[in-house]
Protein 1
Amino acid sequence: MFRLSRGSEYAIRGMLHLALQPQGKISFIDEISAAQKVPRAYLAKIFQTLTKKGFLRSVRGPGGGFALRKDPAEITLLDVIEAMEGEISLNECLIHAGYCEMDSICPVHDIWREAQARFLEFLSECDFSKLAESARLKAKRVKDAAK
Amino acid sequence: MFRLSRGSEYAIRGMLHLALQPQGKISFIDEISAAQKVPRAYLAKIFQTLTKKGFLRSVRGPGGGFALRKDPAEITLLDVIEAMEGEISLNECLIHAGYCEMDSICPVHDIWREAQARFLEFLSECDFSKLAESARLKAKRVKDAAK
DNA sequence: ATAAAAAGGACCTTTTCGGTCTTATTGACA
DNA sequence: TGTCAATAAGACCGAAAAGGTCCTTTTTAT
Ligand code: FES
Ligand code: FES
């Protein structure tokens, strides 16, 4: 179906939520899953893997929760998506050179490579400080319009 | 996993095979599936749907087979992929406006829309006459190198 | 000690993928 | 007219992935 997984989407929404908090603030899963409308248990699992991958800092025990481990500007959309889905390749043939015996003949190969490169580049240009910024702008616009 | 389906790949390889034949030449499934290393029965099914979608012309009975129905230059990669996978949208939220209640707030939405637009544009710029052309070039290069 | 959090992992249902197989049709040709 | 070579149509299937749930363990603030 060629669609990003829900897991990635949830991960991104969750991280964005954290990026919008005051720096270093610990939020807990319940709050985030409610705010972002993501199933609690699922989000918990997602945050576990994001923690293992080094994007989040987790604190256990009462008052515990999650916060970003890195500067939002240091985390790109691509990073998060790859953390969730593994390395992205549009096509089996792109996974490792040599997988496809037709490499040297098949002209579609080059198209995939180029399309993928552009796509990844675009995603890697988008970091969470930018996302947070534009989320704030959007929220403001909505508020202003309501007045 | 964010990968194009094999179905699309096979479809593209099959169409490319046809695009490389002299115009109007009828090829049969057996020949194509052997040349492109695609399971015969599967390719047959794929060609059925490509026929229904108007990309191929099919001829039944002895000596029957398939040929392109349109000028190769009139068929783009995007056309074929969409024929196989349905309309592409990177994200559930992009399928129809209004699906996602967070449209007006979520900043990721715009990123998806843009990324998708670029991706689709790229694929729609690649038609089968170009592909055939570069396939011929590649084949020639391989042959020359073998000398 | 208690309770509030995350960590870890087993398990589960539904959907999609990537096919196969069987049974029609169709039509060229002997 | 019968036979055979081809596609058409569609039922069916196993494996994998998506998208979760649930339960137990560990940590830790109070
Ligand atoms: S089929 Fe492998 S690169 Fe085209
Ligand atoms: S969550 Fe729907 S657009 Fe971002």
Protein 2
Amino acid sequence: MEAYKIPMNLRAAYLSMHRQTNAHLARFGVTADQFVCLLILAEEDGIIQQELVKRATSDPNTIRAMLVLLEKRGLVVRAPHPRDGRARIVTITEEGRQIFAELVSALEPVRNRLTAQIPEADAKTLNELLRRVVEAME
Amino acid sequence: MEAYKIPMNLRAAYLSMHRQTNAHLARFGVTADQFVCLLILAEEDGIIQQELVKRATSDPNTIRAMLVLLEKRGLVVRAPHPRDGRARIVTITEEGRQIFAELVSALEPVRNRLTAQIPEADAKTLNELLRRVVEAME
DNA sequence: TATTGTTATACTCTATAACTATA
DNA sequence: TATAGTTATAGAGTATAACAATA
């Protein structure tokens, strides 16, 4: 079906990436989705849970479950928001950053395979086109 | 993180598509992944379960669970392979094809949104780049 | 009234390993 | 020995709705 070529390739690309990411992170006891949380926090720390939900394209329950696990392991901290009593500010800890660096290292083969058959210029194009898809789906 | 732009956009694009697909199919009691099974079978009927696993980028357990459900609803049939006693040939039923047509119809808004901000020529490029990613990840 | 987050619940998908029956 | 499929089990992610606290 012509109309489902992009959806099916999008699916295959994501699922393969997700599966290989989980496989490479298994020895750390971290899932691909937990890694996404850490990635977002490593880039912009001190955001509230709801913001994390948006950026991770996730939902409140899932993010909460992940944060509880990550907090138990001392990788993140959830602190009360100083001005909004409802919100919780999430921060990655120093230990979280250290482990995150190891995870990024362990994922090098996956990153390399992902764009192995795509030249630099095309990678930019791919990213831009995906960004437009995301924008349209919001 | 520069290296995670494509992965994160790939993730957001897939998850949004998947979520919206599930939402639009909910009233039929069919999941996005079950739809993928039907799509594959509607295109090339009479393949064995293992082949379905490969094409759906899935695993034996997941595919089996889906097929059992779809078979209970009379949408597919699993018959013994005439020459290989281990294998099962999966076929979509006439009722399966009818419902599949309705599902495709119900998903029109999702398909449209997906490429809403991408001209025809760019859609071809996107598909080709995704195909290369899939190829590299195998 | 609307929003942030939690709790409870149920279901789907995923991964592993052990098993059978066939090849 | 290897392969197709099943069974059992456990865990992770998802969706919904009801709720408390706060804005």
